[in-house]
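Data card: per-record layout.
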Amino acid sequence: MALSNAIVPVLPYLADDLSFQTLIFSSYFFGAMLATLPAGVASDRYGQAFLIMISLSIVFISGILISTVPNPVLLLFWRLIEGIGTGIFLSSALSWINYQKDSFKNTGYFMASMNFGLLAGLIGTGWLTMISGALFSGVWFFTICCFFIAIYSFFYPFPEMGERFSVSARVLVTETGHLIFRQYPLWISVVVLLGCTGYAQAVFPELSGSPAHEVSIILAAMNFATIITSLLAHRLKTDPVLVIRISAVMMIPVLFTFLKMPFTVLIMGAIAGITLVSQVGYLSIAEKHQGIAMGLFSTCSYGGMTLIPAVGGFLITISSFELSSLFIAAFVVVTAVTIGNCSCRGFTSKDHNGI
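The structure for this 355-residue chain is written out next.
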């Protein structure tokens, strides 16, 4: 996670055009979106440990390519490869967690760890760039860290969780389709609310006009807020529908204020933490095959982080920040309305693994 964010504070130095900066940012999430569902299915069939080892190796190789061949056009492709590796990791890791007994609390820990990595990538890159003057100093550092983690996973693999199963492609497509329609309001909420955080991260470095180390601190504050709420979210004793609806309503004003009042990114990060844990916690008890469920969840997460920043950056280029935020806010309103049709309505604290 730190490696994926190591490029964000220096985006304005890699491309002059804002729309191209958002493409570089979003290409990572597009790669992850492509990989998450196949990886989730594969983790149920071949085991999570094997997929995690493969994913770490891919991320390590992509880090080397990003730092050694920094051509802006090629950077799109290297970020895509990095995203594929991350997508494989995320689906496999979430599947591994959701097969465990206390999945709701463990999901909070996992999301907090992810966001700590994102925070480290922002702050670490800003600090390393400031003292070294090298744009890719953060990428170099976190690529080396990834190398050691990959080596460790090969010698000390994770224990497998859940039963492996193999189904025909026809049954798999049918089950996936049913799951998409069964939980469609949830998928909409994942795409839109997670996409809003990506929108802020993608456009803030350029539009704020702040130096890299200040950008890294401000965006790291968002991840810090997500860490805190991820750790506390499992204590909520309420319907996930209500949590997501309130989160959507709270997100709307932040979309218009995070440039002029950067402290509001704390609110955006807090919303993301609560929402993520509630969504994953619900799926852990609502669906039987966690590989498919987490694959779809991850696909929607990265789909939102790909689509909304790219669209937002394009709208800013041809119009204004305010119009772009208004367009995205309209989809947040749709989320708040449609989530009422979600089949997760009625869940109680007892359903959340006794929490």
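Known properties of this structure: The domain at 2-157+175-341 is CATH 1.20.1250.20 (Growth Hormone; Chain: A;). The first helix runs from residue 2 to 5.

See the next section for split statistics.
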